Amino acid sequence: MTTLSDFQAEALTGGEVDLGAFEGKVVLVVNTASRCGLTPQFEGLEQLHRELQDEGLVVLGFPSDSFKQEHDSVEQIAEVCQRNYGVSFPMFAPIAVNGPDTHPVFQWLKEEKKGKLGGAIKWNFTKFLIGRDGRVIERFAPTTTPDELRDDIERALAERGSAAA
Questions:
Q1: 42: left (phi over 0), alpha (psi -120 to 50) or beta
Q2: Fewer Cβ atoms within 10 Å of its own Cβ: the N or the C terminal residue of the chain?
Q3: How many domains does the chain have?
Q4: Is 36 a catalytic residue?
């Protein structure tokens, strides 16, 4: 069975990251965009990350220009995330979340939890909650705020699966 640990992605700062490094953690995967009306969600995502990381939460941000609302350079993306929102959670290099060039992790996520548009990502800030076992628990709409995810995240953190350390 496929899990998050089966994938890799390029970090925003360069270099491949084995997503197996997050095995045993509860992971919130988000496709982000730094020029979107929902961009202020970075603030809430960072708050969740800071408050719950010691319990095992990791937020992973995947910038995407699939909706034409992301900066062209990784330097600009990093600057907006850091300067405006103090993002300290892992951010990855820009990827496609829809279409023929969709990153493999998003192909898998969309197959595991289809949304209202079937397999497609509807918009920036679609969120996927992944359990400690590396399997997708739930998919959340772009307009679902980070604060609205807290109960689901805390439930996932409370579950101790076989992958938990």
A1: alpha
A2: N
A3: 1
A4: yes
Q: Is residue 164 part of a domain?
A: no
Task: Give residue 11's region: left, alpha or beta (phi > 0; psi -120 to 50).
Answer: beta
Average pLDDT over residues 32-45: 92
Exposed/middle/buried for residue 151 (C-beta within 10 Å: 0-12, 13-18, 19+): exposed
Angle of helix 146-158 versus helix 41-52 axis, rounded to 10? 20
DSSP assignments along 68-80, one per residue: S-S-SSHHHHHHH
Residue type, 82: Q
Is 165 inside a domain boundary? no
Q: Which of 36, 78, 157, 164 is catalytic?
A: 36
Give the pLDDT score at 117: 63
CATH number at residue 111: 3.40.30.10
Q: Which two tokens stand for residue 160?
A: 């101790």
Residue 83 lies in a domain: yes
